[in-house]
Specification:
- This protein has three helices and eleven strands.
Length: 188
Amino acid sequence: MTTDQPDANTPVGTPVHVDFRKYDGREHWQEHYFLLGVDEIGTWLGMRAGTPFARPGVDVTARTDTVRLLPHQALWAACYNAPDPTGQLRSRTYVDITTPVSWTRTDEGFRATLADIDLDVIERFTGEVFIDDEDEFEAHTVALSYPPELVDATRRTADEVFGAVRDHRPPFDGTGEAWLERINDLPG
């Protein structure tokens, strides 16, 4: 039996394309990962340093190994970054506030589609934690006609995630960093 999303029986290393959109459907970040595993928290994906990813007008190469967590039931998606020896990548944890994930099976593996609702919770390697892109959120609330319930849910989620990251509550308690070690288990 096949499912439209990875589960505990999906082989480690299965490709997963993360398709970030903006609320109006425009393409945003396009990221390529491999499945690390699925647990009670969500789906854990790995990206090796050197992997290209992009958004319209911006091409980037991952500076370090990165783990992306797509929780089963939450309005956010987290990245956990390995330390960057050059010091250019400053975020240990980067949490996008989002719409729920929509999964589909593809010929290559899976596609996870979600909309980025601007606000981000960032934890620097220095320990500083903050909510970013308030100005973008305010502008898009008007320009993209965010409904009031989306605005409320986004602000509430950002505040909850901020507290969890700041206080190192699961899955921001080292859980993501433990998954970083599993990137070495990926095939190839």
